[in-house]
Amino acid sequence: MRVWSRGFMRRGTVGYSSTRHSIFILMLVCYLLSGCAGGVDPKTLDLFEEARRTFDAAYVMFEAEDALIEGRMSDGFIQQKLAGLKRKRPTVIFAHGCTGLGRGNLRYMRFLARAGYAVIAPDSFARRYRPETCDPSRHRGIKGAPHRRVSRMRQEEIHHAEYRVRRIRWVDRKNLFLAGHSQGGTAVAAYEGDEFSAHVISGSVCWRGVRMPIGTPALALYSKDDPWRRGRPADSCLRKARARGVNMAFHLFEGRAHNLSRNEKARRLILDFLNRHRRTE
Residues 220, 224, 226, 227: is their CA dihedral positive or negative? Predict the structure, then answer.
């Protein structure tokens, strides 16, 4: 049984067109030439407030009363269900890809929730200034997009989410994990904090580097012919981890699947990895 609340909209997994790409280019030109950014000047925005918005709009999944509950963190229905949780739960902060919370991200979240984890995915696009950075139809980033700035945003979102979840009574703070897919996986690999028991990276070549603490275990999953790879070594994450001395388990799958959430072996590897690093005391 699955129960969910209203108000969820997916970005980018269906209906993404060249029109949206063109709109972004026009917005970028407007920003560069006149300082406007959809009516918002990013220089005036409060970073903490913007990160707070991404957590308040986070998509949440967990099991309660033999049902899978899912919806936005700020929804009244979800708040009511969360208030009724009694036991502490291992919790995964999940970083979505460059187009937002799409179907593949939700599949990752659902199998984790069904395995007993509470999963919280901050919505990066809840920010008032959040440019598009990728074109899924061409499997590449948008030329001229503020990639570095968005990378910093994703780090802020993870840091703020960790800050918030540690103040939630039903979160098992001894078992807090960080996972992400695609751009979210890149953000997870680059996150330097030591607050998490382990990191899981999906569909990323870790192009912003592997910066997690050396003592934090990591798992990375990638497909040999992933169309987003664009000439980079398929095992880039593992190479970068080894160069820093990070303990990373890496699994390369045959095929071109960018998202491996449908792959039974990938799901089993992720769950085994998380369960292995859960603390019982």
Answer: positive
